């Protein structure tokens, strides 16, 4: 039975395409890190490559395992498997094995880069196996953690969000405001103060990043600590595997057979004259990602307060975290990241995109019999994208305003950065919307826009190729925030990009009906 799951995954064009893109990203990031290390003659090769492997594992596990398995129960095509002479745990074990298998292959795809680094004498030969293991462990942990979170009941997720919200409030009050004085403040708490401080130091000193850095410094406890946290990670993965397998069938039943009134949470809103827009906004609100938004928004508020107060920032409050921001790009880097996060829903088209072609065909079979046209789909798509991403964009606006008032940026820079940020949203939406009509949406274009292009811009800036980097929207946002701009040159680039986006949107709307019907017929043939 397990072989059937692997054969099905191997025959899926969309999964093959996504896996190829992930291999390209993996090799590109490691290759770029190796080039930069060679150019800078840095001695921190092992720690930088180690950090890259852990971060790649988090991203790749989230996409290959977390995203795939979180979307799986949305399709009613899963029902025949659950009704067959198989337990739901066996069905889930098949998909879990496929996800882990893909992550293993992806982790090993970077071995040639590590072999080259070892041949140059930059890393120990043992690192060729050690570093991919970190990608596998931490990618699996994050991926299956997301799956378990998605499979839990609505009430459990609501309690979890409130708990995390409370912890984040404490973090921002203590960690953000107290800063480097946090440990001293915590020690004053009766009874539990020292326990909390010891726990913080334990987490800080035994994170995968900290352990990897200790190993490079020659700390004899580094290897033991790495084995310990890897073993702990494997244990947590086992727990997550069992929990997600146990929750598959109940989660499926809750999604498809629980009464609508029991599933409804919060205000349903007024449907009005645009039911497709109302439905798309409701759809993206199911997993709204509020925890990430709270984290980004809270950080932006604290950083904006620090910028506005400047030298009047109280000495008894912490400043070290803001110094870290300043050393890593400051307002320019923070706002660029926030705008890209705001553009993710527009690029991926969460509102109207279905994860399976079967569900997409079923939905379009109804929608295409109505009078809805390209403009209706465009409004619904934009409403859903803006509803999901606007919080990040508002956070960027707050930082730009604070930078302008505080004098960190002149107002021409602020206006240019705002224009570039809004332009990036429009361009990413237009490209994603066109992809929705032609192929039904998907992860490939979103992955290129939100991951590969920002990585390329970062690499170009690090290599000194700024004249090329600022021609891309993320590079233009960063450039405007980091140095004075030339209004004529920047204005010309903005106008050209905006004109191209408007033309592409008009063309997409004009051809939308024909494109989506052609795509629907092609998907129908593949599904039959």
- Biggest β-sheet description: none
Kindly report the average pLDDT value: 81
Structural class: mainly alpha
Count of alpha and pi helical runs: 24
Question: Could you give the distance between the termini?
Answer: 23 Å
Helix content range of the residues, please? over 70%
SSE string, helices as H and strands as E: HHHHHHHHHHHHHHHHHHHHHHHH
How would you sum up this structure, described in words?
With 528 residues, the chain is mainly alpha-helical. It is built from 24 helices and no strands. Helix 3 packs antiparallel against helix 11, helix 6 runs antiparallel to helix 7 and helix 20 packs parallel to helix 24. The protein is globular. The protein starts with a helix and ends with a helix. About 1% of the residues have low confidence.
Q: How would you sum up this structure in a few lines?
A:
Helix content is 80%, strand content 0%. It has helices at 2-11, 13-40, 45-71, 79-83, 88-108, 111-119, 127-151, 154-178, 182-187, 193-205, 208-216, 222-257, 260-263, 275-284, 290-309, 320-327, 330-348, 357-367, 374-406, 411-439, 443-462, 466-469, 473-482, 487-527.
Features of the shown structure:
single chain, 528 residues, mainly alpha, 24 helices, 80% helix, globular
